[in-house]
Amino acid sequence: MKTFVYIDHFKGEIQPASWEALGLAKSLGSASAIVFGSGVDAVVKAAFEFGAEEVLVADDAALADYRAEVYASTLSALASSLNPNLILFPTTARTRELAAMSAVDLETGVLTDISDLDSSLVATRPIYEGKLLEKTACAGKIVLATIRARAFPKPAQNPGAAGSITKVEVKADALSEVKGYAAAESAVNLGDASVIVSGGRGVSNNPALGLDELATAQKGFELIGELASLLGGAVGASRAAVDGGYITYAHQVGQTGKVVSPDLYIACGISGAIQHYVGMRNAKLVVAINKDADAPIFKQARYGALGDLFAIVPALTAALKKKLGK
Amino acid sequence: MKIIACIKQVPDSEAKVKAEGGQVSWGDAPLVINPFDEYAVEGALQQKEAIGGTVTALCVGPESARDALKHALAMGADEAILVSDPALENLDTVGAARILAAAIQKIGGAEMIIFGRQTLDNGAGLTPAQTARILKMPMLGLAGSIKVEGGSVTVDRVIEEGRQTVSANLPAVLSVVQSIGEPRYPSFMGIRKASKANIPVWSLGDLGVSAPAPVVTRSELINPPVQETTTEIISGETPEAIAEILADKILAEKVL
Ligand SMILES: Cc1cc2nc3c(=O)[nH]c(=O)nc-3n(C[C@H](O)[C@H](O)[C@H](O)COP(=O)(O)OP(=O)(O)OC[C@H]3O[C@@H](n4cnc5c(N)ncnc54)[C@H](O)[C@@H]3O)c2cc1C
Ligand SMILES: Nc1ncnc2c1ncn2[C@@H]1O[C@H](COP(=O)(O)O)[C@@H](O)[C@H]1O
Predict the structure, then answer these.
(1) For residues A241 and A268, is the Cβ–Cβ distance under 8 A?
(2) B189 alpha carbon to ligand 2 midpoint, in Å?
(3) C-beta atoms of A138 and B140 within 8 A
(4) Is the ipTM of this complex over 0.85?
(5) What CATH number does the domain located at B2-207 have?
(6) What's domain A2-167's architecture?
(7) Which residue owns the Cα nearest ligand 1 atom 36?
């Protein structure tokens, strides 16, 4: 099997699931990495270190900003000239677009968000918000698939590893222009996080502070952030917290937010609505902190702490800090 | 300005969905407009209010999908079109994109074609970019806000790394996310208008295209293994006592 793996990065910041895709590719046969961008030497180097035998590089000022059309045309031309059996991508906002467009160019299809792929390229993926799984295949000559973060093992990094570099021609037919980036809201990478501590509407409920709703919520998310950072994790949120303006949409877990699969998910002041549950049901261990003994989240959690998150979260941070010797 | 909002009908997100005899079953749960597509309709209506024009809701689906289109009309869309044909039962996303593109051409095109982020049933999130590619229009995906000025549109795109501002000339294809604003509730007048509306149904013959053969196919449906969680509620005299026990439990699970 000849597989290409698209290494997704944003201004050099690589999506770790790219390496998981590379590991999967190697388990199926030969693996070449694809790196597009401008000034991407460090990304190319990392691709060799994570196991690429070859890196197909388009390093060009026209690729400095990700733009769907240019990237897709470059990818499609590359694929139709070199004819891989399979192109793998980590599942991100960019790759869904890129793979979608190249599939049109290459007269094939895309298997999205897959959690398993066998040697005959039958994939397993969630449908109906993960309430069901399907086995699915793509009859195109070149199969495109985006993999779910943390579903496949990450290969070890082999510092200093090198291989051959092949230059790729850029097809610059941009239809859109990137005007700029709003000051990064701090990158939130929920998909790759191994620990997520999430807050819900409950973070705004602490009358004792004597603050208004937003200021209380800010305080609540500060406590949640401290626990998350102690555990090297990310901060998540329910939709009620996002709608309340307590935190930005990028943090939202659930049906209309991100589907996550961390090792540990700590839900604080979240009731456990089905639309939230479908986003975090793949977590290995769920812990819930909630004031209401009847909250559905307690049925979804392995451990539940009944009480005020404003008291329990900082106490848990302190206890873990001590026990972890940090 | 002419705006088209592409919507699909799906089982309600509260539905208990199961695989039964190789088929998807959602019991007696209602079919509703795909929740992500309510944002598409909302985004389209906001633009109509800002700069004037009309909003057409477009759906490829079975006869029952009329109800989803009626919801869009009740929200305030000016017209609705259903593309329905028995030959369109097993569309993959490229197939859906081809039919949508053909319907958009038959409508006479539009300055903006607005999609939801993804469907609740298939969840692929591919159709918008594929439709854009087929129509050879620019794709502005995952817009959290939309601003039209002169002949161009600028969106704030919500991606993993934050917000990115991207512009393109019209006509353009967009997909929108929740930050666009809560979908408005259908008004009483809207519901009345929708109930009386005449929704044309176009067949493949009307579009002058044949049914695209699916490239992506399903071979098996699986009910995910039920995660039997027995919940242990940690109790203690004080928050500190609870936290102490909880910390030990978490560490014992070796997930950190
Ligand atoms: C189409 C659709 C899509 C949706 N998508 C999503 C989605 O992607 N993600 C999502 O999360 N939701 C989503 N929702 C919304 C979902 O149905 C719920 O409304 C939402 O998850 C509720 O958020 P919550 O649990 O934070 O708030 P609530 O349900 O209000 O729960 C707050 C909880 O906090 C507890 N609490 C209050 N104060 C404290 C305190 N001081 N200490 C401890 N506990 C406290 C309360 O007991 C309660 O259980 C969607 C809904 C629809 C219809
Ligand atoms: N059958 C359809 N009819 C109209 N619009 C559709 C259809 N299927 C998908 N869409 C649109 O494409 C978006 C993404 O769908 P998907 O690629 O299936 O996740 C949806 O949110 C809709 O806006």
Answers:
(1) no
(2) 28
(3) no
(4) yes
(5) 3.40.50.620
(6) 3-Layer(aba) Sandwich (3.40)
(7) A202
